Amino acid sequence: MADKAPQTAGISPTNVQQYTAFVPYEPKPDEEYMNDAQIAHFQKILEDWRGELMAEVDRTVQHMQMENVNYSDPNDRASLETDMGLELRARDRERKLIRKITQALGRIKENEYGYCESCGVEIGLRRLEARPTATLCIDCKTLEEKREKQMAQD
């Protein structure tokens, strides 16, 4: 990764990485939930994260164009194709993440960001900092995961 890349939660460059280069928001006592300062905080996190992911996509495209080499050795060619396949899978996951980030930014514009899509309660600042694209509160997300687990067992 580039020298100026933010700290990330992923271990390898092929993991979809969580953008974490921000100072956690410290709400003031009796501060209203999702006020202008909080909205600005999360909007910056989302825009910076999307920018980092887009830069990674651009680097991948440039890398793939430069790696357009025709190896005569089948092992070298297979290794290159495997590497490219892993890279493309990682970029596909990041493409989906970019879509979620864009949707979260849309919810900010619609004044719906930070509230559970299922029950309407506050998602919470710390949960949103951990997962800025979250659309469900922890209770609804837990319930959803239990349902998914039950469906997988059937």
UniProtKB/TrEMBL annotation:
Binding residues annotated for Zn(2+), in chain numbering: 116, 119, 137, 140
Residue stretches making up the DnaK suppressor protein DksA N-terminal domain: 38-108
Pfam families, alphabetized: DksA_N (PF21157), zf-dskA_traR (PF01258)
Boundaries of every Zinc finger DksA/TraR C4-type domain copy: 112-145
Keywords: Coiled coil, Cytoplasm, Metal-binding, Zinc, Zinc-finger
InterPro entries for this protein: DksA_N (IPR048489), DksA_RNA_pol-bd (IPR012784), DnaK_N (IPR037187), Znf_C4-type_bac (IPR020460), Znf_DskA_TraR (IPR000962), Znf_DskA_TraR_CS (IPR020458)
Zinc finger extent (dksA C4-type): 116-140
Location of the protein in the cell: Cytoplasm
PROSITE patterns xrefs: ZF_DKSA_1, ZF_DKSA_2
Similarity-based family: Belongs to the DksA family.
Subunit structure: Interacts directly with the RNA polymerase.
UniProt cross-references to HAMAP family, sorted A to Z: DksA (MF_00926)
Function: Transcription factor that acts by binding directly to the RNA polymerase (RNAP). Required for negative regulation of rRNA expression and positive regulation of several amino acid biosynthesis promoters.
Protein known as: RNA polymerase-binding transcription factor DksA
Natural source organism: Acidithiobacillus concretivorus
Lineage of the species this protein comes from: Bacteria, Pseudomonadati, Pseudomonadota, Acidithiobacillia, Acidithiobacillales
